[in-house]
Amino acid sequence: MKKTVLVSGGAGYIGSHTAVELIAAGYDVVIADNLSNSDCSGVEGVRRITGVEVPFVEVDCCDKEAFARVFAQYDFDSVIHFAAFKAVGESVADPMKYYRNNLLSFMNVVDLMREYDRHNIVFSSSATVYGEPDELPVTELSPRKPATSAYGNTKQMCEDILRDSVAAYDSLRAIALRYFNPIGAHPSALIGELPRGVPQNLVPYITQTAAGVRECLSVFGDDYPTEDGSCLRDYIDIVDLARAHVAAIDRMTSGDATERYEIFNVGTGRAVSVFELVHTFERVNNLALNHKVAPRRAGDVMAVWADTRRANEVLGWRAERPLDETLRSAWEWEKYVRKL
Ligand code: UD1
Fold first, then answer.
1. Is the pLDDT of residue 257 over 90?
2. 35 CA distance to ligand 1 middle (Å)
3. Quick one: three-class SS letters along 215-269?
4. Does the chain have fewer CB atoms within 10 Å around its N or its C terminus?
């Protein structure tokens, strides 16, 4: 029997890749998205890759009445909730925009799941909940640090809402996935990350610089106490990350979950510096990237990477795609977008 998954925010970067992997694993998918930070190309890309005319509903999850119609119309038992704002700097400048959107849409999902008797939810959390960790790598039991942005705070608050809701409402099962740094694009180059305006994240900035859209990449800080002086992150391939969601849905729908609320780190377990990432990008794509050292960026942590044992052992998932391939796919995608 096919099972259906509602993917909110499914037109976006992580959502579209997850929709593809769900379909490959035999699930039916319904995409709901208000296209506030994406366009129809994500959904079109999913349809082209899978050959499936995936249903798409343009809806704002904050509009409970409109969102309820999706629950009334489609017979899904699982929801993956991606729909959220994600720009850290913007969230500091306009926190209410983030609290209103990210919390309201999430609370609507939880309410509607109860009202329509739907059971499984996967929530997109983030390594940002760990802040600047005292010990590395971070495990799921590492302390959460006070958030330094409204964006980070909404991730912590949604985790808490989920924990309390699962404790109170017997019908709900939940998995929160704490993503490290998602990068790369689908091997078909038909879907990928489409940042609006100037990219804030490293890899889109790199690919746009390589494409000549940006003049020069600034490496934010070469004076951190790390081997080469730049920050360390755990860069997780987007297809690997998408498959972690499939593993989470498999776990809940098969009844394998031992707790009704579980948390997993989704990373590679490997720390990569900014310079290493830049040089790997140059090597695998056979190009030279214009870059310079700039001052540290406010709010950056020096280093964070995942202990992935729980995801490996309990979820049965592990990162597989080599960094070389991921960075090649990021460049292929940029070339596709720019028609280069
Ligand atoms: C940030 C957020 C994270 C969020 C993610 C995706 C924090 C602490 N982290 O991660 O929660 O999920 O964005 O939106 O708020 N860098 C440069 N030059 C650039 C851009 C980045 O050197 O032009 C460096 C940064 O200093 C950092 C690394 O590249 O060391 C990665 O940065 P970025 O891609 O922005 O991700 P994070 O800041 O790790």
1. no
2. 23
3. CCEEEECCCCCCCCCCCEECEEEHHHHHHHHHHHHHHHHCCCCCCCEEEEEECCC
4. N
